[in-house]
Amino acid sequence: MAATAAAVVVRPVTPVQASLWSDAWRRLRRNRLALAGAIYLLFLLGVALIAFVWTPYPMAGVAVAAPYSGPSSAHIFGADLLGRDVLSRVMVGAQISLTVGIGTQLIVLAVGVPVGLIAGYFGGWLDSIVSFLVNVFYGVPDLLVALLLVVLLGHPGLDKIIIAISVTRWMDMTRLVRGQTLALREREFIEAARASGARPIKILFGHVLPNALGPVIVQATFGVPAAILFEAFLSFLGLGVPPPQPSWGSMAADGLSAIRIAPHMVIAPSIALSLTLMAFNFLGDGLRDALDPRSRR
Amino acid sequence: MLTRGTLIYISQRLVLIVFTVLAVSSAVFLGIHRLPGDALFNEHLHGTEYQNVLHHYGLDLPLWTQYTNYLTGMFLHGDLGESFVNRGVKIAPLVLREATVSAEVGAFALIFTIGLGMLLGVVAAVRQNTWVDYVLSTTSVIGYSMPSFVIATFLILFFAVWLDNFTQGGFYFQIGWTGTYGSIGEIWLPAFALGFPYASIVARLTRASMLEVIRQDYIRTARAKGLREQIIIVRHALRNALIPVVTILGPLVIGIITGGVIIENIFGIPGLGKEFATSILNRDYNIVIGVFTMYAALIGIANLGVDLLYVVIDPRIRY
């Protein structure tokens, strides 16, 4: 909805917009680490999508190999404590991680962008309340709050985890959008829009948001690995997605208890998780340099 | 240093900590008591036996009375109630002891974080754009991107498994603690695993701010008057380069306290974090409330400590 509104309003200045994006793409392409991260993430997305229709073995298939057996040609990553194929489970784990990471960011965007826009644009008591809430949430340790929420929300499940992580992450986006809006609302083109009688909603989504899009995209890119990390933490502690659904965190926890006899069990999910987090961080760095050159150090 | 203003500031902060603890404790208490089902669900008790247990914990009272009882117990007698799972075990002394264990691990991790991070940052800055700098910068990016439990896992794999096999059991790291508090030999690996990601951040910050300070005129003056390079770096440059690093101490301490939840579970450390995960999995809700209350107090006190440290490091700051 926001995207179409932006497109409609922005049409008169399309050449400028096009050059911004092509300029950003040119800069991103030159950043080899960011590009490598993007390619890895595309590969991971492909793996996650393939895992919906095909995995080498069923992800919950018990005793497709000898329990704890190490890597072999039939099971490249070996087997876990129940003789399940680790590669298949890492593939399905990619689905979980990406779903949590992207799902959380969608909620964070859906909450943070409108709240930040409204607080920044209208100011006054609305802004005071939002700023107070943001500060309160920054003051409490996020991992503990997420843990508590998982307990309070009852039954474990992917939706509960996404909600719990979103509650501890929404204020990053809110604070960013609010700050951007505060800076933009004094600019002449916003004043012109206001003078020509545009309704606030049109000003916010048609004029303010498109101009704040770069930092928002960067923030969302950094938000995804943070959410993935949280899910891994929760699953590692046994509070994540319920078994037999695999998550990289719970696989690592299983592997850790068998680390002397079957170290491959812990290595595969740990490396998958680390690579994913690193790829998102590199891509985020690259996007920040490309989309938001002013914030470059 | 301990002026009247500072004392007033400290007492104000202590009052604030009490209110924070009260708010956190109340939120968790009410939240958990709102949960459907009851805490004795797992025990399959029936009839009068069930009623007796309910009465023992005061769970047959109205929620409001339970809440006021809980608050008066906590503030007047320092009593946080009793464990549901291990009947008769008082929670307050338990979590208090565990908090000191967590604080011990956290303090060692903090020493690692700051010591190692500053050392790496200074070395990278002094040797800017040499291979040393590149190796250290890459290490710190990796350290920043790897979750603490992955780092811990690889450390265990190396020190507890491979080293054991390699030296035929001659030298290896034993996981798990023998006593309540860890000895140096038991604590260094968990502390390192806990501190390493944050050490990467400190190293990055120190490097950046060292590079800025090193180019300033007073450093050139120090060189010109013939001071030795080590003295210039340690006494003149580092002290000013530290100020930006100090500003992240607050988030860093909170990160170490929450990160301890994972590390304590991995290394079998009998601290607050291990109790936290165990009590949630056991549905021992009284302990969950107690642990949260303790965490709120611990974080409040740690933050106060950090703010007081600012005064020591940067004399321009006064309260």
Task: Outline the structure in words.
The complex is a heterodimer of chains A (297) and B (319). Chain A contains eleven helices and no strands. By secondary structure, chain A is mainly α. In chain A, 45% of the residues are buried. Chain B has 319 residues and is mainly α. In chain B, 76% of the residues lie in helices and 0% in strands. Chain B has twelve helices and no strands. In chain B, helix 6 packs across helix 7. At the A-B interface, helix 6, helix 9, helix 10 and helix 11 of A face helix 1, helix 5, helix 6, helix 10 and helix 11 of B.
Rg estimate of chain B, integer Å: 24 Å
- End-to-end Cα distance of chain B: 10 Å
CATH superfamily of chain A: MetI-like
CA distance, first residue to last residue of chain A: 34 Å
Q: What is the residue-mean pLDDT of chain B, rounded to a whole number?
A: 82
Question: What would the principal axes of the Cα set say about the shape of chain A?
Answer: elongated
> Which strand-content bin applies to the residues of chain B?
under 5%
Largest sheet of chain B: none
Beta-strand segment tally of chain A:
0
Helical content of chain A (DSSP H or I, runs of 4+): over 70%
Secondary-structure element series of chain B: HHHHHHHHHHHH
**Which structural class should the secondary elements of chain A be placed in?**
mainly alpha
Secondary-structure arrangement, i.e. CATH architecture of chain A: Orthogonal Bundle
Q: How many structural domains in the coordinates of chain A?
A: 1
Number of H/I helices of chain B: 12
- Global outline of chain B: flat
Q: Structural class given helices, strands, pairing of chain B?
A: mainly alpha
- Low-pLDDT parts of chain A are none
- CATH class of chain A equals Mainly Alpha
Strand content of chain A: under 5%
Largest interface, with Cβ-Cβ < 8 Å? A-B, 34 and 38 residues
